[in-house]
Amino acid sequence: MGSALLCVSLVSGIGAIIKGGAGDPGQAAVGPTKTSKSEKSDKKPSPVAEPGDVVWNSVVPAGGGRSPEWYAAMNSRDCDAITRIGPKRAQPVYQGLGAACAAGINGDGASWGPAAQALANVKQAPDSCTDAFAYRLLRDLVIAHLRQPGRPPLVIGSKSPITC
User: Fold this and answer.
1) Rg of the chain's alpha carbons, rounded to an integer?
2) What is the DSSP string of 126-149?
3) Model-level pTM greater than 0.85?
4) 81-117 per-position pLDDT tens digit
């Protein structure tokens, strides 16, 4: 299943490149372009993540959320701990996020398959803030990998923490 999904993604990305990058902004990027010194811009870098980038915000408790261990695992990107911190009803999300984290953060390429499979097994996005946060990370990491399987996703933080 995972290899078929990867193959479809690759074909889609190649098609976008052949068309000159036309299509929705989610298509694969053609690559960096060179700019001459005369084309320099005073623009600040966009706060929006590029395709292949994943924004992993820090999370702060809103009161009544999860245990301190949940916040510690998420904020430190402790892939092993992430697999153990979710509630039973959302366990596929946390198992998948732990695998995606191991693949994207720790370089364990063999974990992409289990991460994609876990994402495919999630029937509905969780509705609690903390579980939805974990689901978004799982989804974004897997999609970033499928868009650019040859490079690990660039995981970036944000200056604004999420309150859950």
Assistant:
1) 17
2) --SHHHHHHHHHHHHHHHHHHH-T
3) no
4) 999 999 999 999 999 999 999 999 999 999 999 999 9
- Separation of alpha carbons 137 and 45, rounded Å: 23
Q: Are strands 162-163 and 59-60 parallel, antiparallel or unpaired?
A: parallel
Q: Residue ranges per domain, the chain?
A: 53-163
Length of the chain counted residue by residue: 164
* Phi, then psi, of 22 in degrees rounded to 5: -65, 155
